[in-house]
């Protein structure tokens, strides 16, 4: 009888880490796998965005490998096993869904989230409540981190009542950037640019968008248009470095207009 796939994967990982296993796999540590985990996570996101479910299946497998890999190393260190990881998340899911596995009533997503937050607060054994902005991963991309911080504080009313306040704050921060530039104060410019970025994230969030996604979409659009500019110039036998900014801007506008069907 064939083993369940997850058991086979665990067996393969143990074999790779065995003394007579793979030299590369045996050499890895929890710390050395950090970059691999981050890379695989982003590759999952890319597959999600592509809409290619076969690619998503493969990339989820690569991500699962990272979980299994780290759990095997931890097992060798005697600290926890893959079974501990699986049991822990299963117990947490059951504990945080009393409306499914218990007798708590929660008929809307909002009620579910409120119950979830209450349960999280009790899981620390009655210790002093942490700050509302504690527990945010420090290695999140900065735009995502800003969005999450703002989202959390907005839950307790630290939020503009009207979007006009958000826009006014953005304009205020831009004015402060200009003032710092006029004074040629490098430290102030750096600080005020950070404030401007933070306020931009807040405006995006207020309008229902995540800045990380918006910026990625904009980068993709820019890259597509820049490649169009390169192709246009090459088709005419011209090179970018031999064109003036005026010439480049004219081609850029032509690429934009063509893209928009104008």
Q: What's the CATH architecture name of the largest domain?
A: Orthogonal Bundle
As a percent range, the share of strand residues is under 5%
Query: Could you name the ranges where pLDDT drops below 50 across 5 or more consecutive residues?
Result: none
Number of helices: 12
What is the CATH third-level topology name of the largest domain?
Helix Hairpins
Overall 3D form: extended
Radius of gyration over C-alpha positions, nearest whole angstrom: 25 Å
The structural class is mainly alpha
Question: Approximately how much helix is present in the residues?
Answer: over 70%
CATH C-level name of the largest domain: Mainly Alpha
Counting structural domains, the number is 3
Give the biggest sheet: none
Mean pLDDT: 93
Looking at this structure, what is the CATH superfamily of the largest domain?
Answer: MazG-like
Could you explain how this protein is built, in words?
This protein folds into three domains: 5-94, Helix Hairpins, CATH 1.10.287.1080; 142-209, Helix Hairpins, CATH 1.10.287; 214-259. 71% of the residues lie in helices and 0% in strands. By secondary structure, the chain is mostly helical. It has helices spanning 5-17, 23-27, 34-50, 53-77, 82-95, 98-101, 109-122, 142-154, 163-182, 186-206, 211-235, 245-259.
């Amino acid at each position: 009888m064939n083993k369940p796939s997850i058991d086979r994967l665990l067996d393969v990982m143990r074999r790779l880490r065995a003394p007579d296993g793979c030299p590369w796999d045996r050499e890895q540590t929890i710390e050395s796998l950090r970059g691999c985990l981050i890379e695989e996570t982003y590759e999952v996101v890319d597959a999600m965005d592509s809409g290619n479910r076969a690619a998503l299946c493969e990339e989820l497998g690569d991500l699962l490998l990272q979980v299994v890999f780290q759990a095997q190393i931890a097992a060798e260190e005697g600290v926890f096993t893959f079974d501990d990881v699986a049991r822990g998340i299963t117990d947490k899911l059951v504990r945080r869904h009393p409306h499914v596995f218990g007798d708590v009533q929660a008929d809307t997503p909002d009620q579910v989230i409120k119950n979830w937050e209450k349960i999280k607060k009790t899981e620390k054994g009655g210790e002093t409540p942490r700050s509302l902005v504690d527990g945010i991963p420090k290695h999140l991309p900065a735009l995502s981190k800003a969005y999450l911080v703002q989202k959390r504080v907005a839950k307790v009313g630290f939020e503009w009542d009207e979007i006009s306040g958000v826009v006014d704050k953005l304009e205020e921060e831009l004015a402060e950037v200009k003032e710092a530039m006029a004074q040629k104060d490098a430290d102030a410019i750096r600080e005020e640019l950070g404030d401007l970025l933070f306020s931009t994230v807040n405006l995006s969030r207020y309008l229902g968008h995540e800045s990380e996604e918006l910026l990625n979409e904009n980068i993709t659009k820019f890259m597509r248009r820049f490649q169009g500019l390169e192709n246009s110039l090459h088709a005419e036998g011209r090179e970018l470095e031999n064109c003036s900014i005026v010439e480049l801007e004219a081609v850029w506008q032509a690429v934009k207009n063509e893209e928009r069907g104008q």
